[in-house]
Design brief:
7 strands; two-stranded antiparallel ribbon; 53% helix; hpI Integrase, Chain A; DNA polymerase, domain 1; mainly alpha; 3-stranded antiparallel sheet; globular; 3 domains; 20 helices
Length: 449
């Protein structure tokens, strides 16, 4: 089977003597085809193109002219593809050996973009506007995850307008990108809003453009969302499937309703055993709050901190750099980073480099959220819970179970750190759905049929 490769197809399409509308239609169709290849984990071939067309016709039931346009777009792609090669057998030992060293690429040959700011700065060619964007976000003390998200969306905008430079984008280009996300990719309203915020920040704050009114873009469907919630029996099964540090982390997240970032970034000084309080510092929106510490966790946490003290003492004996300090506290209190009270409650087993301060070298950081999420996913599978695994579900379950226990919704709002009461009220719907009193008509006939 011959597999085709067309790395710069978007640039080639831009040079074709076709109308702009037809070029844009071809681009949408080919992006959909390449997404289909990624889902199927296969290469671009005549057979996969025919399978894609059959699937689209079965799903969309298009008019004859629309189906012909899909075929014309794919015919153009294969006709102009600069290279093709014989498909290699994945079971071949030589292929398996080279697969580990080969750079990750999309089906059309494009290299995958880095997912962190440090990887972006290291592997991608320098882009002054994106560098200025990163500097501005750090001046404004925006969260690191926000930096990653905003840079990612600007790079997706650049991939969408492959024929333009970053300094050529305007509100019309942004509107076309938002339309593409809603119509072609079918993203949710929240995802489209996130892309809008990132690109508007880039155009207005970095490029210093005075944006006009472009509110007539196609908006994604605002689907009504009900959060997934574990029942109390499912919480018990999940906790029993976890062991060690991750068992304690899951109990603390469910017992206090913490976000995963708040859980991983806890420091020793944030837990007050004498007053049974947990202090959340610089949570979402850079806000602090106080939550009661569950009495059943005190003994386990004290034992855990004794083990963490040995890790801290080992780092001091090895003369390793201190932990990360927020803001300018490392300059105001130079010794605080190496003190016990600022040490992580859940520290990582290995040393790593801070992506914002690589010059400091390797030091001790907290457990990464992805590591905890991985163990949580394995526990959900082990406990045979037929729901998706996500650490945030523990927070949803905390809020819902509080309301079911009769706690006032305003109190739940303060405990969760929600700015608007409407955000907290969504748990009322989940609680009502799980404890509905109305019987189905089938229940009245169950004994008779």
């Amino acid at each position: 089977m011959d597999t085709f490769y067309f790395k710069h197809w978007q640039a080639a399409l831009a040079k074709e003597p076709l109308s702009e509308n037809l070029k844009r239609a071809y681009q949408y169709i080919l992006i959909g085809y390449l997404s289909y290849l990624r889902q199927q984990k296969t290469g671009a071939s005549i057979g996969s193109a025919r399978a894609y067309i059959r699937q689209k016709i079965a799903e969309k039931r298009p008019a004859s002219w629309q189906a012909q346009r899909w075929k014309d777009a794919l015919n153009w792609w294969f006709k102009n593809a600069p290279s093709k090669r014989r498909h290699r057998n994945p079971t071949d030992a030589r292929f398996q050996a080279s697969a580990h060293t080969k750079k990750k690429q999309y089906a059309d040959g494009r290299q995958r973009y880095p997912v962190t700011i440090r990887q972006y700065q290291k592997k991608v060619s320098s882009e002054p506007l994106i560098e200025d964007m990163i500097k501005l976000m750090r001046i404004r003390h925006m969260a690191y995850r926000t930096e990653e998200t905003y840079v990612g969306w600007v790079r997706r905008l650049a991939r969408f307008h492959v024929d333009k430079r970053l300094d050529e984008f305007d509100e019309e280009g942004l509107k076309a990108f938002l339309n593409h996300l809603a119509v072609e990719e079918g993203v949710s309203a929240g995802t489209q809003r996130q892309a809008l915020n990132a690109c508007v920040f880039f155009l207005r704050e970095v490029r210093k453009l005075k944006l006009g009114d472009f509110s007539d873009y196609v908006q994604a469907n605002p689907n009504k969302y009900y959060p997934v919630v574990y029942s109390k029996n499912e919480i018990i099964a999940l906790l029993n499937a976890l062991t060690g540090t991750y068992h304690l982390m899951a109990k603390l997240q469910y017992g206090c309703g913490l976000r995963i970032s708040e859980l991983c970034r806890l420091r020793v000084k944030d837990i007050d055993f004498a007053r049974n309080k947990v202090y959340i510092r610089a949570g979402k929106g850079n806000k602090d709050r106080i939550i009661g510490l569950p009495h059943s966790l005190k003994a386990d946490l004290e034992l855990h901190l004794l083990a963490q003290k040995k890790v801290h003492d080992g780092d001091r004996a090895a003369q390793r750099p201190g932990v990360y300090m927020p803001g300018c506290l490392d300059k105001k209190y130079p010794r605080a980073a190496k003190s016990w009270e600022w040490f992580w409650v859940f520290s990582s087993e290995v040393l790593s480099i801070d992506p914002r301060s690589p010059r400091l070298g390797k030091r001790r950081h907290h457990i990464l959220p992805g590591v905890f999420q991985k163990h949580l996913t394995q526990a959900v599978s082990k406990a045979a819970i037929p729901k998706r695994s996500n650490s945030h579900i523990l927070r949803h379950s905390y809020a819902t179970h509080l309301l079911e226990n009769g706690v006032n919704i305003r109190t739940v709002q303060d405990l969760l750190g929600h700015q608007c009461i409407e955000t907290t009220m969504i748990y009322l719907h989940v609680m009502e759905d799980s404890s509905a009193t109305s019987n189905s008509p089938l229940d009245t006939l169950a004994q008779k049929c």
